Structures are given as C-alpha cells and as structure tokens.
Input
Amino acid sequence: MDTFLSEEIRAVREAVSNFAQKEILPFVEIWDSKHQYPSGAIKKMGLLGYLGAIIPEEFGGTNMGFLAQSVIAEEISRASGSLRVVFNCQTAGVSLPIARYGTSKQKEKYIPALVTGEKTGAFAITEPNSGSDVMAMKTRATLDGETFVLNGTKTWISNATIADVAVVYAYTEPDKKAKGMSVFIVDMDRQGITTKEIPKMGLYSAPTGEIVFEDVKLPKESLLGNAGEGVKMLFSSLNQTRLMAAAGAVGIAQACLDAAVKYCNERSQFGQTIGNFQMNQEQIAVAATEIEAARLLVYRAADQKDGGYVNNGRETSMAKYFACETASRVAEVALKILSAYGYSTEYPVARLYRDAKAVQIVEGTSNIQKMIIALDVLGIRKAGR
Output
C-alpha cells in the first residue's frame, strides 16, 4: 500500500501512528469507560496540524490534501473511533464549508480556532423526522429585518453538547423547496439554544445530542454563502464527511484485525496456537483482503478529490459503503476469534465492535450509499457529476 502514498504522506502516517500510540492508546479505555471527551488530546492533534490537511495554509491548515487527511483519520481511528469524529466536526463538515463558501471575515473568525482545536465544531442536518430524507427538514430561519430568527430541532448531532460553533442547515424559503434551503454559522452560546446528550451504543468519547433552537436571533452575516444554496452545500459537504467516515472505518477494521492476529499468535488450544487452525486462517485471510480493498477505495476517492474531482459522489459512496461494512464484518471476526475475551469490556474488541456499528449509520447509512451508487450506475441520477 505504501507505493500509493508519497514519501511526505508516508512520513505523516508514521508520525500520526506514533502520536496515537503515545497519546491515545494508553488512555482510550479510560476515556471510553468514563464517556469522556478528550479535549486535551484533540488540541494536541490540532497543534500538530492533523485537523487541517484539507484547509488552506492562510487559515492555519496544511493544505496537504484529502489523501493525507484520510491517512490521518485512519490512523487516529485505529486507536480510537471516537476521536475520528473530530475530522468530521472540526474539518470536513465545518472548517471546509466555511473555507469554500464563507466570507473573509467568517474564515478568519472561525477556521483557525477550529483547526487548532481551540474551538469545537458541529454541523446540524438530521432532525427527529428527517434522517436520510434530508429535504424533509422542518427547521426554519425567517428573515426579520436585518436578523434571521431560527427555530427547529436537530438530533443525532455529534458534538452537540460541547460545540462552540455549528454549521446549521435550515429552510429560509420553504415554498421554494430545494432552492429554499440555506446554511448558517451559529455561535452556540446564543440565547434560545438548548442541548441534550443522547446515550448511545458506542463512540462513548464522542458526545452526540439534540439541539433545540427557539427564536434564536442570527445577524445576516451568519449566513454562509448565499441564501438558497443550502442543498448544494449540504450534498457537497456530505461527500467530504463520508470520506472521513470511510477512512475511520478502515482504521477500526485494521485495529480489529490487529487484535485478532495477536490473539491467534498467543492463544494455545489442543497443543498449538489457534492461528494454526484453518477456520481461523480463513477468517484472517478474508478480513485482511477486505481491509486492503476498502483502503484502496478510500485512497482512490481521496486521490480523485486531490486531483480536482472533489464531488466524486459515486466513488466516495463506494468507499463509504464498503469500508464501513468491512469494519463491521471484521469486528465480528475479531469477536468470534477472541470469543469470551472479545465479549469482555476489559479487551479492546468490545469497544471496536460497538464503534464499527456506528460508521455504518453516520453520514448516510449503507443503504443510502448503495442507492447513490445504483442510481449513478443506472444513469438515473448522477452522483456529483
């Protein structure tokens, strides 16, 4: 796989891997058991440039590109699936849209603090009655003189309860349907905003919650881009956050394989290590092959984005679908091989298994990715072309 990466990106991967070994792995189980958001580790990641590989240098990023950002997300996720979420909330879902569509003032105000980890970000799309059907969202931003008044409820929002700033999608002119959606940059300390954490099965160190907006007054300069451009921004943004989820899924899958291989080489039964049993060998071989295939799909999609084909919807959905399904399958393999030890919360496989299920859902479920791919292949609706 190294032959597909430049010397610079290989060096970045090694540095991130070393960082994860020293700054994440020794503490990940403690953070997870306490449902603790490791802000200190994330700030260290920001200071090292890990949150800004797809952000221009003038705003504090490194501008190394999507392939570098994918490699970084993969290595961090290999240590902690929860910390992978930061690449969506700080980088692809918040900093990048502001960099692409924001005014100079918006870029200067928000991006550097997000890239360094000084501020925490979130992006708010999903609602109680609009998940995969994002066009059914009910949140409204009504213009009242020089002020927008924001009302609505968002749910399953990563970082909802801790975010300093959120990119929020809402209808400004609902009668215009797709042409009536807009995007706002919202400081989360504004009056009228309340949040509540949602308990969940995994990703314990990445808080998820509900955001309620009640007559929240936003100045007109809170508008990101132009009014009515929300749908374009939404699907463009999802096309980038999906890649980060896919890269994270590869990291989770690799961590599961690492645990399974280690156990196969250590555990003895019937006078030999269990790696000598053909049934275990078959599972290891399939898992290793699927991980390599998933990694190639992720790297291809990232490389296309770096080459200028940023909205490569089909290839990104292929990477997201296959990588996330692979993570779940390999987590199942690791659980079977470790048996009772895999089921025990004293070992990492239980955490990895829970986290693997999440990536099948976030940023568009596996079924949504299959639909995007099929519609594109059939020529019914092109994905990002």
User: Anything to note?
Assistant: The chain is about 50% helix and 15% strand. The radius of gyration is 21 Å.
